[in-house]
Amino acid sequence: MPEFHESVLAEAVAKALVPAIAATPEAVLVDATCGAGGHTAALLARCSPAKVVLLDRDPAALEFARTRLEGAECALHFVHARFSSLAAVLDELGIESVAALIADIGVSSHQFDAGERGFSFRADAPLDMRMDPTRGRSAGELLAEIDEAGLAELLRRYGEEPEARRIAKAVIVARPRTTGALAQVVEEAMSARARRQLGRRIHPATRTFQALRIAVNEELEELDALLEAGPERLAVGGRMGVISFHSLEDRRIKRRFAALSRVAELPHGLPLTADQLPKAPFQLAAELPRRGVVADAAERDRNPRSRSARLRVLERRS
């Protein structure tokens, strides 16, 4: 069984979601990105939902979580699926609404550390990058098919790479097939000025790898689908927490939650008192910072992956 690492912001997730679970009879918890089962384990240590539905694209993660959570006192349903299929999964299980939903967006530490998965340039391996290795197009196949203009656009959109054109030109000429070869091509293509701006802590190929991974796994489209379906399946008083790791994700979450927390239209006519004003069906969790929850110094030191993590929580009011 592979070793999975600590789930980020597990304590914050538990504090935010336990009240919603405890207040709901026959509560259903959904872990839309179960990974190693860390968030579910933290929640089950503090509350007792009637049922937990755990989704993941990675069969290895599901197998690990199944073993880790063995002996839980509630019903556990493990589903090999993308979280964009949340509504279909819940319908199949006959679940209309849930008390709590957590999604940890992005790649797990295990996937990064497993060199053969091709997510990282720390080990030379075939360019794969698929979160679900059983289906879909790999990063190597994408690079074999895409043209220079398409790659440059992909690097700008998903990697926010300022040197997208230089890198795309070099990559298309070389058509690298491994993570090490791609990292070398990107580093050699990047201008000296750009490398200086990145400094020693950030590898020149970091943005390129991020962009390819996002494209291969359709991560932003997946997130949009979850942000559309997730809130609609919350019971009254239910909460949805989403952890993001970079600005492309966090902006989407922030904007969607803000839109759901606004009143669509005020009624016309006589002035209304505060009690008469319509209320939005959703609100941001009142006790949490409006800018989201980030890891404290102790967690950042213990778990470096948590440094870029941010948790935002939405609550259904009516």
List the helices and strands and how they pair.
Elements: H1 10-22, E1 28-31, H2 38-44, E2 51-56, H3 59-68, E3 75-80, H4 86-92, E4 98-104, H5 109-113, H6 139-145, H7 148-159, H8 164-174, H9 179-189, H10 192-198, H11 206-217, H12 219-229, E5 234-244, H13 247-260, E6 282-284, E7 293-294, H14 297-302, E8 310-316
Parallel strand pairs: 1-2, 1-4, 2-3, 4-5
Antiparallel strand pairs: 5-8, 6-8, 7-8
Return the CATH class of the largest domain. Answer: Alpha Beta
The number of strands is: 8
Average residue-wise pLDDT: 91
Based on the coordinates given, report the CATH architecture of the largest domain: 3-Layer(aba) Sandwich
The succession of helices and strands, N to C, reads HEHEHEHEHHHHHHHHEHEEHE
Name the shape in a single word.
Answer: globular
Distance between the termini: 43 Å
Describe this structure in words.
This protein is of the alpha/beta class. It folds into two domains: 10-104 and 220-316, Rossmann fold; 116-217, Putative methyltransferase TM0872, insert domain (DNA polymerase, domain 1, Orthogonal Bundle), CATH 1.10.150. It contains 14 helices and eight strands. Strands 1, 2, 3, 4, 5, 6, 7 and 8 form an eight-stranded mixed β-sheet that branches. Helix 3 (59-68) links the parallel strand 2 (51-56) and strand 3. The chain starts with 9 loop residues before the first helix and ends with a strand.
